[in-house]
Amino acid sequence: MPLLKKTSAPERYSFAQIVLHWLVAALILVQYATSGAIVRMNQTRTLGHTMGDWDDILHKVHMRVGLVILLLMGGRLLLRLLLGAPLQIGNPTLWTTKAARLAHWAFYALVFAQGVTGATASYFWFPIAPVHQALFKLMLLVITVHIAAATWHHFKLGDATLKRMLKP
Ligand code: HEM
Ligand code: HEM
User: Fold this and answer.
1) CA 16, CA 82: separation in Å to the nearest integer?
2) What backbone torsions phi and psi does residue 49 show, to the nearest 5 degrees?
3) pLDDT tens digit string along 117-147?
4) Which residue of 104, 139, 167 sits with most ligand 2 atoms within 8 Å of its CB, as the best mutation to test the pocket?
5) What are the domain boundaries of the chain?
6) Does the pTM exceed 0.90?
7) Between 31 and 94, whose confidence is greater?
8) Is-contact 28 112, C-beta < 8 A?
């Protein structure tokens, strides 16, 4: 349901919402793949050694891609507030339907918080790094449930939940 416009929920996600959904998902995978290098790098520094070139590159990729994710999420939030999202398929009184809505908003909060804590750890205040790490564990939990739910809708219930996030 759009928050900024007093109209009913749209029938489908817009092309831009779909592209942003999959782009951010792919970039979060990049973040996971590059994160080990930063942790390795911090350990190497603590031991007084210099880091390898490859880890240095991965570190830079992690920071830049993280900032891009923040920007994309800003655009995504704006679209979500302006255009809304189609109603969840299924009985609206079921706890699973309500949980899906909650999980979607949790994603917005978690991805933003992850980006902000990462940037804070890098540029301003490193002690926040454990929060950045803990948030990712929480995000992994929501991602697992999210993927399980999408798979369940597609293969078990056979509804259009996944299809409408693939095709406008
Ligand atoms: C928004 C998406 C982001 C995701 C999903 C993400 C994910 C991660 C993950 C999984 C780790 C490793 C945690 C571990 O091994 O336990 C990590 C570490 C780190 N990330 Fe990010 N990150 C994001 C954004 C950023 C940004 C924007 C920056 C900086 C500009 C950043 C800077 C760091 C730093 C400095 C560490 C090392 C923390 C430490 O050594 O404890 N991250 N990130
Ligand atoms: C880290 C990765 C992911 C994040 C952060 C994420 C986040 C979200 C969010 C916030 C929504 C709500 C719609 C919106 O506001 O854009 C959504 C919807 C959706 N996502 Fe993801 N998602 C991720 C990965 C995936 C994956 C891997 C799949 C498929 C296996 C998937 C399938 C779906 C589907 C089918 C919907 C539509 C649900 C509905 O219409 O009720 N997502 N996702």
Assistant:
1) 12
2) -95, 165
3) 999 999 999 999 999 999 999 999 999 999 9
4) 104
5) 15-165
6) yes
7) 31
8) no
**pLDDT above 80 for 5:** no
pLDDT in tens, 25-52: 999 999 999 999 988 887 777 776 666 7
Contact between residue 128 and residue 121 where contact means Cβ atoms under 8 Å apart: yes
What's the CA-to-centroid distance between 39 and ligand 1, angstroms? 9
Cα–ligand 1 centroid distance for 118 (angstroms): 5
d(CA 31, CA 25): 10
Q: Does ligand 2 come within 6 angstroms of the Cβ of 136? A: no
pLDDT for residue 159: 94
Ligand nearest to the backbone CA of 33: 1
- Protein residue whose Cα sits closest to atom 7 of ligand 1: 31
CB 164, CB 12: distance < 8 Å: yes
User: Cβ contacts of residue 96 below 8 Å, gap of 6+?
Assistant: 90, 149
Q: Is 80 in the pocket of ligand 2 (CB under 6 A)?
A: yes
